Amino acid sequence: MITPADLARMIADAADEHARNAFAPDNLLYTSQSSREHDDALLDPDAPTPAIMPQRRAKDGPSTFASLDAQELPVVREYSAGGLVFDDRGQVAIIARHSRSGHWEWCLPKGHIEKGETPQQTAVREVHEETGILGEVVESIATIDYWFTGTNQRVHKLVHHFVLRRISGELTVEGDPDHEAEDALWVRFDDLDNVLSYPNERKIAWLYARKLNRQT
After folding, report:
1. How far apart are CA 63 and CA 186, in angstroms?
2. Predicted pLDDT of residue 101
3. Which domain holds residue 128?
4. Displacement of CA 118 from its chain's centroid (Å)
5. Based on the number of CB atoms within 10 Å of its own CB, is 53 exposed (0-12), middle (13-18) or buried (19 or more)?
6. Which CATH number is 25's domain given?
7. Which pLDDT band, with edges at 50, 70 and 90, does 113 fall under?
8. Among 30, 65, 98, 204, which residue carries the largest CB count within 10 Å?
9. Region 111-115: what's the mean pLDDT?
10. Is residue 28 included in any domain, yes or no?
11. In angstroms, what is the C-alpha Rg of the chain?
């Protein structure tokens, strides 16, 4: 059941969703920092699985430009962390949700860095909450760095992405306190480029694949 608080959060995060869809690859940084993409809706039992999802969109770049008025808005910064959690078969855990516009999305688990946490600690906690998998951080991949404009502020968002190794746990979204993840699934790492809904997250998978290829 969607509560008034859920609805308010969905409306407030609409700008966040637009920013993710308009992400440009040139904004990737090789550092470590973070975002939470929120959208709540009821789970559709007939929702498609990754195997029958459409391929990536032809248009991954921005189609509009921010108003010059946005330059006068106050700037705030938000930080999140998450990433790729692998099982012993080389599969990666991803989560599913509906966007505010009703689209079914497959995403990497991630969330806001809480006070007193390091990005690594946040990645472990968020992965566990959204997928049920307890992991340990193996290495850093990259930080996504982008801007979006809300109704009364401009937000500079940084999302740290890490590689995690599964220690224990089974896939479930029942432990997500915000009920943002509607489903969780193991997918082959090589399939992420065709499964993940957002260009910035496909870029993270590509960066890690390139790193692995250099090591072989």
Report:
1. 33
2. 75
3. 4-41+74-215
4. 18
5. middle
6. 3.90.79.10
7. very high
8. 204
9. 95
10. yes
11. 17
